[in-house]
UniProtKB/TrEMBL annotation:
Higher taxonomy: Bacteria, Pseudomonadati, Pseudomonadota, Gammaproteobacteria, Lysobacterales
One Pfam family linked to the record: 5_3_exonuc
Residues in 5'-3' exonuclease domain copies: 11-273
InterPro entries attached to this UniProt entry: 5-3_exonucl_a-hlix_arch_N (IPR020046), 5-3_exonuclease (IPR002421), 5-3_exonuclease_C_sf (IPR036279), DNA_polI_H3TH (IPR020045), FEN (IPR038969), HhH2 (IPR008918), PIN-like_dom_sf (IPR029060)
A GO biological-process term: DNA replication, Okazaki fragment processing
SMART domains: 53EXOc, HhH2
Recorded superkingdom: Bacteria
Protein name: 5'-3' exonuclease (Including N-terminal domain of PolI)
Family annotation (Gene3D superfamilies): 5' to 3' exonuclease, C-terminal subdomain (1.10.150.20), 5'-nuclease (3.40.50.1010)
GO molecular function terms attached to this record: 5'-3' exonuclease activity; 5'-flap endonuclease activity; DNA binding
Organism in which the protein naturally occurs: Frateuria aurantia (strain ATCC 33424 / DSM 6220 / KCTC 2777 / LMG 1558 / NBRC 3245 / NCIMB 13370) (Acetobacter aurantius)
Keyword Hydrolase included in the entry's annotation: yes
Keyword Transport: no
Keywords assigned by UniProt, alphabetized: DNA-binding, Exonuclease, Hydrolase, Nuclease
Length: 302
C-alpha cells in the first residue's frame, strides 16, 4: 500500500541499528577488513543501504543509530530498562562505527545521541518535518514507531517489504497510533524489559483503551473496569488501582520523546559532500568487492 505524499515532500528516516543487527545475525563471519576485523554486519548493512538509495532516490533522508544500551534517559528513571539485553561484543561495536562511516561517506545525515535513542531522534524529526508539511516514512520493523504515524505517514519493514499507515497499526494491535505508548505501558514490552501491569495482556489492553481512550482516563476511572463484560474485569480493576504509579512510569519508557536532538528542517535531511577519494579509501579498508565499490562510488556522486 502506498499513501499519497503531502505537497511539501517525504522524509525517509532509517532505523540504522536495527539493520546492522539484522546483518550481524544473518551473514556468516566470513568478511574481514584490511586489519583482520570482522565486517559481516558492515557488508550486509551497506548492501541494504545501497539498495534503499537506488530504489527510493530520496531527496530527504537521515539514518539514526543508538549510541548505547545503558545511557539513555530511560535508564535513569528505570534502571532495569533493557537490562535483559546483552551489550554488543567489541567486534560488533567496531562494526557499528564502520557502518556509521559508510553513512557519512555517502554524505547522508546521521543522527546519534547518548541520552536519547534512535527512536527519539526519529520521532523528533518526524514531528519537525510535519510542521514543514512533510510526510515521513520510517524504515524499521520496530512496533514502537506506530505511535508516530500521522495521516500521511508510513512505516516500512524493508526486509519483509511490508508498508503500513495508521490503519495498519490498528489492524496489528487493536489501538490507534496515539494509544500505542499507553498500550505498551499496560501490556508490557518484553523486548525492552518493561513488565506492564500484572494481569493485563495485549487483548485486554486494547479493550481498555478502546473503552476509555487513554491511560489517564483509564486510571482515573479504574473502578468502572470491574463492571466491563470481559473475563477477569474485577481483578483487572484491582490491579490498575494497585499499580497506578508503575503504569505511569512505564508510559514514560514506552512514549517516544519528541524533544530529542533530531533534525528540525528539511535542508538538514539533504545529502552533503561525498568525496570520491574518501569513499575509495573506505572501500579499500573494508575490502568491499568490485560490485559494492561501484555502487557506493556511483551513489556518492549521485
Amino acid at each position: 500500500m502506498r499513501l499519497d505524499p503531502v505537497s511539501a515532500g517525504t522524509s525517509w528516516l532509517v532505523d540504522g541499528s536495527l539493520y546492522v543487527f539484522r546483518a550481524w545475525h544473518s551473514l556468516p563471519d566470513d568478511f574481514h577488513d584490511r586489519d583482520g576485523q570482522p565486517v559481516n554486519a558492515v557488508h550486509g548493512f551497506t548492501r541494504f543501504l545501497c539498495e534503499l538509495l537506488e530504489r527510493v532516490r530520496p531527496e530527504h533522508l537521515a539514518v539514526a543509530f543508538d549510541a548505547s544500551l545503558t545511557s539513555s534517559f530511560r535508564n535513569t528513571i528505570y534502571p532495569p530498562y533493557k537490562a535483559n539485553r546483552e551489550l554488543p561484543p567489541p567486534e560488533l561495536e567496531y562494526q557499528f562505527r564502520q557502518c556509521r562511516a559508510v553513512v557519512q561517506a555517502l554524505g547522508l545525515p546521521l543522527m546519534i545521541d547518548h541520552s536519547y535513542e534512535a527512536d527519539d531522534l526519529i520521532g523528533t524529526t518526524v514531528w519537525s518535518m510535519r510542521a514543514h508539511g512533510f510526510r515521513s516514512v520510517i524504515i524499521s520493523a520496530d512496533k514502537d514507531f506506530g505511535q508516530l504515524l500521522g495521516e500521511h505517514d508510513e512505516q516500512w519493514d524493508y526486509g519483509r517489504n511490508r508498508r503500513w499507515g495508521p490503519e495498519g497499526v490498528f489492524e496489528k494491535f487493536g489501538v490507534h497510533p496515539p494509544q500505542v505508548a499507553d498500550y505498551l505501558a499496560l501490556c508490557g514490552d518484553a523486548v525492552d524489559n518493561i513488565p506492564g501491569v500484572p494481569g493485563i495482556g495485549a487483548k485486554t489492553a486494547a479493550i481498555l483503551l478502546g473503552h476509555f481512550g487513554n491511560l489517564d482516563q483509564l486510571l482515573e476511572r479504574a473502578d468502572e473496569v470491574a463492571f466491563l463484560s470481559f473475563r477477569g474485569a474485577a481483578r483487572c480493576s484491582a490491579s490498575l488501582k494497585q499499580h497506578r504509579e508503575q503504569a505511569l512510569l512505564y508510559r514514560q519508557l514506552t512514549r517516544i520523546a519528541l524533544d530529542a536532538p533530531g533534525l528540525d528542517h528539511p535542508d538538514a535531511l539533504r545529502r552533503g559532500p561525498a568525496p570520491a577519494e574518501a569513499m575509495a579509501a573506505l572501500c579499500e579498508q573494508l575490502r568491499f568487492g568490485p560490485l559494492s565499490r561501484q555502487r557506493l562510488l556511483a551513489l556518492s556522486q549521485d
